[in-house]
Amino acid sequence: xxxxxxxxxxxxxxxxxxxxLRCHQTENHRYMYWYRQDPGHGLRLIHYSYGxxxxxxxxxxxxxxxxRSKTEDFLLTLESATSSQTSVYFCAISESGGGYPYEQxxxxxxRLTVT
Amino acid sequence: xxxxxxxxxxxxxxxGDSAVIKCTYSDSASNYFPWYKQELGKGPQLIIDIRxxxxxxxxxxxxxxxxxxxxxxSLHITETQPEDSAVYFCAASRPSRGGYNKLIFxxxxxxxxxx
Lengths: 115, 115
Known about the structure:
The structure holds two protein chains of two kinds. Chain A is mainly beta.
């Protein structure tokens, strides 16, 4: 998984509680991404980061926030979890340079269940 | 925005046969098209990618073709083996000033290779 770890790997939480997922990379890549994967939808981008403290929204960002205080760590927070946020969450990383797309590598995922 | 459609959703082949998965995209500015393989319980693994300045790319038993005029690209797996059984995802992204990839994924194809 290209030097990417995610924690926790599994979590069950109750509706209305806050949840934070962590992505850690050892590749020193500039870009980090959070996706969610749901049946029939493939993977959808939640938020991404293009540097420390630099983040932007993806296509399904409502209900999620992110933070990146260090190059190697990218946190995804659900401020008040809802059942619709039950999903598998993947972190990804990519290198940078010249406006040309670089390969994107994924972590092992976190399975989140909101009851 | 970009939309990526992937067909078929399921594909069953006999070991040794070829498998073809097709994707169409809507954004004519897209210039990067990766393919991912996802095994059960794991993160997506990049298996091959193609950029818009080439029409075909091959890596051992897998190949990808791109038709920019028709806005479609395909994954070809020859001499399939049981270990090729997995879910395959196509994706597309357009150029960005910063070099990051906002990948838009297809819904996935579940490939089963029967001995």
